[in-house]
Specification:
The chain is 10% helix and 51% strand. It is mainly beta and 176 residues long.
Length: 176
């Protein structure tokens, strides 16, 4: 491949920085960390603004990790990253929001990260862990900036209900 034919792929990959390192939440070094992508296959459609990775996909940048059998990256009309969609038996996403905060981890058969809204959807067999707190259900929605979780027993297009369950760890009291 020539340098010119690699330009669209590099541009799309570099826009993943927005996915991996949202300014208010990500560790400071995440934005400048290299992006590592492993997959069995890549289908890039620059005109449609999509890159589809297939086959045991793993994307890592700093503290952020996204895995699935298939990961699709979508850009909007302005060329900015708009969504990352991971699917698989247990698609997975993790990120350490700040040095003094625990790792946030999420699973589902489908994970949709909405970049502009800084919102994560975990669909079907959804599970979210924040420190000692856990949330399970058919559909979980997590708003990164507000640290809000919304849980439902079912998701559109998913058969059956998966009861909402949560475990919340009590806050530690200072012993003085």
């Amino acid at each position: 491949m020539t340098r010119q034919s690699l330009a669209p792929l590099l541009g799309l990959t570099l826009t993943m920085l927005t996915l991996a390192a949202p300014p208010a939440l990500a560790l400071e070094g995440d934005a400048s960390a290299p992006i590592q992508v492993e997959a069995d296959r890549l289908d890039l459609d620059d005109r449609a603004g999509t890159a589809v990775y297939q086959g045991d996909v793993s994307i890592q940048q700093g503290s952020m990790r996204l895995t699935g059998a298939r990961v699709e990256i979508r850009r909007n009309d302005d060329g900015q990253l708009s969504q990352a969609i991971a699917t698989g038996e247990r698609a997975y996403i993790e990120q350490k929001p700040a040095p003094d905060e625990p790792l946030v981890r999420g699973w589902g058969q489908r994970i949709v990260y909405h970049v502009a809204e800084r919102r994560m959807e975990l669909v079907d067999q959804a599970e979210l862990h924040q420190g000692g707190d856990t949330f399970d259900g058919g559909y979980l929605e997590y708003f990164l900036d507000r640290r809000v979780v919304q849980a439902r027993s079912s998701a559109e297009g998913v058969e059956g209900n998966q009861r909402v369950r949560m475990t919340l760890e009590p806050e530690q009291q200072d012993s003085q």
